[in-house]
Each structure stands twice: as structure tokens, then as C-alpha cells.
Amino acid sequence: MKKLLSFAIAILLSVNLMADNELRCMNNRYYYGSESISQSEMLDWYAQHNCQAAYDQFAKGQKMMKTGWALLGVGVALDIAATGCAIRGLTTMVCPVRDSETSQKPASEETYTLNTQQKLFISAGVIGTAAFACEVACIPTLVIGYHKMHDSANVYNTMCTTAKAKPYWSVQTSPNGLGLALNF
């Protein structure tokens, strides 16, 4: 019974030792042991812990994330502009604006010019298409950016904590037989 109890205590202690050396990311919040680190503090934290690979990974992800949010903002602004053009085009249908170029030309001339309403609808279509392109481009940019930021914790755990001692189990032989050893 004494051996079983000491074995259980050794396992509990080793699990606790292994968990303290690991950087984790949950819900855009980073945890190192019991220390909680926000996204805005992560670059400084990587610099303090001298982990260039994780720093670069996080910085790339942060740039992509900011670019994604900027694309979404531009897309929404262009949507508003396209809606304004379309609404203005509809109001010119109800209250037509006189186009000075078309009213002064003789009816026999076969040139085609766009009136104000058509120009507004074409502008709304072009601006709306640009808005849609920005909004679609923001989705993969945001996903990849956040993934790179969160993956920087794994980069830190694999590349920058190798110099620190990590506890591990090993099998040892002795004149008395086989034994299980916890090395730390």
C-alpha cells in the first residue's frame, strides 16, 4: 500500500511540474503556469523570454489579423457608399434630374450617353463589387492571422523551452530488478 501511495504522489507531482512549463492559449488569452497574459502583452513577453521564432510567428499573425479587420472595415464603408449611390439612383427615378448633354443634342444624332440615374446604378454596382471582394478577403485573412497568433504558443513550447529541464519517466535496471524513475 505504501508503494502504491508513493507512486500516486509521484505521478501527481510530475503532472504539476510538466504543466508549469507550458504556454497555453484559450479564448485569445495566454497562460503560462498561473500567469495570465493578454494579446497586447504577448510580443513583449516573447521578447523577455528570448524566443525569436515565437515572436516572429505572433508578429506575422498580428499583422494579418489587423489587415483582416481593416479589410472588413473598408468593405462595410464601401457597402454604405454603394447603398447611397443606389438610393440616389432611385430618387432620380422619381424626381428625374435633367442631363444638360442629352437635352441639347438633336434627336437625329445616334450617340448614346448615360443619364445620371444609370451612372449612379453603375457606380453602386462597381462599389458594391469592391465591397464584396474586401469582405470575402477579410475572412481567410482573419482566420489565418488568429491561427498564427495562437500557434505561436506551440512554437514557444517546442522551440524555446528545450533548454529547461522537463520531468520524464524512465525504466531503470538494478541488481534488485526493474524500476520506474522520475527524472527532473
**Total of helices:** 5
**Terminal Cα span:** 25 Å
Strand content: 5-15%
Oligomer: single chain
Whole-number mean pLDDT:
81
The total of beta strands comes to 5
| Helix/strand/pairing category | alpha+beta
Q: How helix-rich are the residues, as a percent range? A: 55-70%
Main sheet: strands, sense, barrel: 3 strands, antiparallel
Order of helices and strands: HEEEHHHHEE
Shape: rod-shaped
Strand order across the largest sheet: 1-2-3
Low-confidence stretches: none
The rounded Rg comes to 32 Å
Which keywords apply here?
184 residues, alpha+beta, two-stranded antiparallel ribbon, 5 helices
What's this, in brief?
The chain is α+β, with helices and mostly antiparallel strands and about 180 residues long. It is about 65% helix and about 15% strand.
